[in-house]
Structures are given as C-alpha cells and as structure tokens.
Amino acid sequence: MGRLDEQLLGWAEALCGRVVRVAEAVAKDGASRRIADHTLSSGTAVGANLFEADEALSRAALVECLAISVMELNET
C-alpha cells in the first residue's frame, strides 16, 4: 500500500545495517554476547515493524506497528 514515506523506510533499513555491524563488533567479546543479541533483536525489529506498518491493511494495524517500532527503538 505504501503508507509510509520512502525516506523513513530507507532510514530504517540503514539503521538495521548499522545495528548488525555494531552487534557483530560487540559480540566478539564473549561477556557482551547477551547485550549484542538483544541489541540485534530490538534494532532489527524496528525496521521489520516499520515495513509491516507500510503494508498495514487498517489504520489500527498501522498504529500498532508504529507503536511497536517506537518501543523497539527505545530498547535499542
């Protein structure tokens, strides 16, 4: 459907790439593995939920996906 601005989706995709690179760098230290895993999970969920919001079939689904993206972004 394309409800969201392409620039926002591009930003989300770039963020996911940066999160993956940071998580890989942090994971090299065994003690930080759990932090890296959580950062990777929440950081990539931001983009996944924004892309899902972009294809939402209803306004309620759009708002729900956007809210989840914000929560995941705060965790990251």
Count the DSSP helices. Answer: 3
Instruction: Look up the CATH topology.
Output: de novo design (two linked rop proteins)
How many DSSP E strands? 0
Termini separation comes to 28 Å
Instruction: Output the radius of gyration.
Output: 14 Å
Share in β-strands: under 5%
CATH homology group: 23S rRNA-intervening sequence
Indicate the CATH class: Mainly Alpha
Mean pLDDT: 92
Shape, principal axes of CA atoms: elongated
Structural class: mainly alpha
Q: Uncertain segments of ≥5 residues (pLDDT<50)? A: none
Please bin the fraction of helical residues: over 70%
Describe the largest sheet: none
Count of the domains: 1
Helix-strand pattern: HHH
CATH structural architecture: Up-down Bundle
Task: Characterise the protein shown here.
This protein is mainly alpha-helical and 76 residues long. The protein has one domain (6-75): de novo design (two linked rop proteins) (Up-down Bundle), CATH 1.20.1440.60. It is 80% helix and 0% strand. It has helices spanning 6-27, 33-54, 59-75. The longest helix has 22 residues, at 6-27. The protein starts with 5 loop residues before the first helix and ends with a helix.
